[in-house]
C-alpha cells in the first residue's frame, strides 16, 4: 500500500470538509479522486502531505505514519498543486533545476534530471523564458516538470488541467500515463469525469468530504441500474408508439424531440436489438443510430441525486 487514509476528519470551524474519509492507494495505480468543486479533494491532499492539520484519523504513506517533518517520506513524493507554484524571477530551466536540487545533491545528476524533465514536458524551446512569458498551458507543464524532475515514487496532481488548452491537456494526460508506466504511483484529482475515466485505473468518487463509491470505472458503472442510452434519428413517430416502446423489455425512458428518439434502458442484454426490431416491425423510417454506455456522471447522479457539475 502506498497511501492509506483512515477515517480522516477535517473541520474548518463549523464546516466539516472531510467526514471520515477513507482511501487506500496501491503501488502502481493511477488513482483518481473525482468530485465536484468543494467536495474536499484539495483538503484531502493537503492533509495527506501534512500541510494541513486534521481533527481525526490516520495517514500512512509508504507504510509509515505521515508527519510534517517526515522528510524521508516527502523526498519520494512529487506534488503538483492547483495553483502554479514557481519562481517568477527564475527561468524555466532554473526553476526546474532549483526544485530538483532540493532533493538531489549531486550537481551533474541535477543537470541530467532537469534536462530529462524539460524533454518530458516538451519545453525545450522555452528553457530561457521567464514564467510570466509562458501561456497557461506551458506554465502548467513547467509546474509539472518542477514536481517530477527528482523522479518521485508517488506523484500527486491536484486538478492539473484546469483552464488548459486541449493540446497541453493531452500532453499532460499522456505524460502522466508515461510517468506511471515508468513506475510512479499517481494520485489524480479532478472534477472532469472524462479525464478520470481515460486515465485512472481506480477511482474514488467524493462528495461532501466522504468517499461515496470506489472501484474501476466499470465496477462503478455496474453499481447503478442504468444501462445504455440509445439515440435514433426517427421520423413521424406517434404518441401511442412512444407509449408502446416503454413495454420493450428493459426500457425505462423514451423521449422524442425534433426527430431524435432517445431511449434509456436498464442493464440487460440485447436492448438495441429489441429497439431495432420494434422500429422494423412498425415500419418506422430511421436514420443514424448510436448507443452510449453510462458515464461516471450517471453514477454520481444515481448515488447523490445531483450532477457532478452542479
Ligand atoms: N481555508 C479554508 N477555510 C475555510 N473553508 C475552507 C478552506 N479551504 C476549503 N474550505 C472549504 O472546504 C470545502 C472543501 O474544499 P476543497 O477546496 O478541499 O474542495 P475541492 O474538492 O478541492 O474543490 P476545488 O476543486 O474547488 O478546490 C469547501 O466547502 C471549501 O469552501
From TrEMBL:
Keyword Transport: yes
Keyword Transport recorded: yes
Domain ABC transporter as annotated: residue spans: 3-233
InterPro entries, per the entry: AAA+_ATPase, ABC_transporter-like_ATP-bd, DrrA1/2-like_C, P-loop_NTPase
SMART domains attached to this UniProt entry: AAA
Residues forming coiled coils: none
Name of protein: ATP-binding cassette domain-containing protein
Amino acid at each position: 500500500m502506498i497511501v492509506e487514509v483512515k477515517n480522516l476528519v477535517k473541520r474548518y470551524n463549523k464546516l466539516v470538509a472531510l467526514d471520515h474519509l477513507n482511501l487506500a492507494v496501491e503501488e502502481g495505480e493511477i488513482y483518481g479522486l473525482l468530485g465536484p468543486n468543494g467536495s474536499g479533494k484539495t483538503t484531502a491532499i493537503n492533509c495527506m502531505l501534512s500541510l494541513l492539520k486534521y481533527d481525526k484519523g490516520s495517514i500512512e504513506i509508504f507504510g509509515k505514519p505521515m508527519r510534517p517533518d517526515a522528510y524521508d517520506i516527502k523526498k519520494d513524493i512529487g506534488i503538483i498543486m492547483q495553483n502554479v507554484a514557481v519562481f517568477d524571477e527564475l527561468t524555466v530551466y532554473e526553476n526546474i533545476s532549483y526544485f530538483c536540487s532540493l532533493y538531489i545533491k549531486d550537481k551533474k545528476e541535477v543537470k541530467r534530471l532537469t534536462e530529462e524533465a524539460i524533454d518530458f514536458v516538451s519545453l525545450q524551446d522555452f528553457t530561457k523564458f521567464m514564467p510570466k512569458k509562458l501561456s497557461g498551458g506551458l506554465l502548467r507543464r513547467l509546474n509539472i516538470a518542477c514536481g517530477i524532475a527528482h523522479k518521485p515514487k508517488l506523484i500527486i496532481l491536484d486538478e492539473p488541467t484546469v483552464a488548459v488548452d486541449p493540446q497541453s491537456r493531452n500532453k499532460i494526460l499522456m505524460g502522466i500515463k508515461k510517468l506511471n508506466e515508468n513506475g510512479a504511483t499517481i494520485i489524480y484529482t479532478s472534477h472532469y469525469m472524462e479525464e478520470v475515466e481515460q486515465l485512472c485505473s481506480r477511482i474514488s468518487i467524493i462528495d461532501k468530504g466522504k468517499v461515496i463509491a470506489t472501484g474501476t470505472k466499470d465496477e462503478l458503472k455496474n453499481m447503478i441500474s442504468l444501462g445504455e442510452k440509445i439515440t435514433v434519428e426517427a421520423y413521424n413517430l406517434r404518441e401511442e408508439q412512444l407509449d408502446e416502446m416503454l413495454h420493450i423489455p428493459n426500457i425505462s425512458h423514451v423521449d422524442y424531440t425534433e426527430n431524435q428518439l432517445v431511449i434509456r434502458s436498464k442493464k440487460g442484454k440485447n436492448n438495441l436489438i429489441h429497439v431495432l426490431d420494434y422500429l422494423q416491425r412498425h415500419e418506422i423510417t430511421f436514420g443514424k443510430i448510436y448507443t452510449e454506455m453510462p458515464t461516471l456522471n450517471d453514477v454520481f447522479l444515481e448515488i447523490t441525486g445531483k450532477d457532478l457539475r452542479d
